[in-house]
Prior knowledge:
TIM Barrel; binds indole-3-glycerol phosphate; alpha/beta; 260 residues; single chain
Amino acid sequence: MTILDKIVAHKKIEVAARKEIVSLADLQARPLFDKEPVSAKAWIASPNKSGIIAEFKRQSPSKGLINGTAKVSDVAEGYFKAGVSAMSVLTDQEFFGGTVDDLLAARSVSPVPIIRKDFIVDEYQIVEAKSIGADFILLIASCLTPEESKKYAEVARNLGMQILLEVHNQEELEAHVCDKMDLIGVNNRNLKTFEVSIENSKILAELIPNEFVKVSESGISNIENIKELKKYGYKGFLIGENFMKTNNPSKAAKEFISQL
Ligand SMILES: O=P(O)(O)OC[C@@H](O)[C@@H](O)c1c[nH]c2ccccc12
C-alpha cells in the first residue's frame, strides 16, 4: 500500500463522517457559498503578475514537520502583499496538518485566488470548498478514474470554480485531460515514492494542449528553476516548502518574487 492509497482510504472515511455532521444544504447556506470565485487562470497567466502560487503547508508525509509556528492569516496576508498570483491552502488534517478553518482564515485576509489543496474523492468536498470561499480546486489524477475527474470538474464548474488537474506522467495526462479542466499541473513529486525532479515538468510540457494554463508543482527552490520552466511554457509555479521552511514564509516569498 502506497502513502497515496493510505491517504485516499482515510479521506473516504473522513468525508463520510463529515457528511453525517454537516449536510449539503448546510454548506450551501454558508455566507461564502455565494461568493463569486476569482479567476485563477487570469491571475496566474497574467503577464503583469508573478505566476507564483504560494502554499501554506505545516507538514507533509514526505518532509514531516515543515513549520509548526506560522499563523495562516499572517502568511496569507504576507503572500498577497508579496505579489503572489494565487495561494494554495492544504486542508487535509491527518497527513498535512491543515484544516478548512485555515482556508477560511486565509480567505478573510487575501483577495488572491485560493485553491483548496486536498485529496478530492467525493463531490461533497467540492461543495465544501465553495462554502469556505475557495476559488479553484485540485483534482489529482492518480487518485481518480478519468470518469471521476471529469465528473468532479463539472461539479466545480457548475459552482463557478476553476480546476487544476494534477498529473505526474504522460499516461495520467492523456487519460484525464478534458475540456472541463482549466489549468494542468505537473507534479514534480511522485506521490507514491516522493522522488522529486523538475525534469518531469520539462518532459510533459509539450504534451499539454495550449488552451490550458501550465503549472509546475513541487521542488521549486530557486529563480533558475522558474526561468528554465518558463521556456517550456509554464505560467504557474506552485511553491510550498521553500517558503514554509523559513521562519517567515511571506518574507521568503517577497524576496523570491522581487528577483523574478
Ligand atoms: O513543498 P513543495 O515541494 O514546494 O511542493 C508544493 C506542492 O506542489 C505540494 O505540496 C503538492 C503538490 N501536489 C500535492 C497534492 C497533495 C498535497 C500536496 C501537494
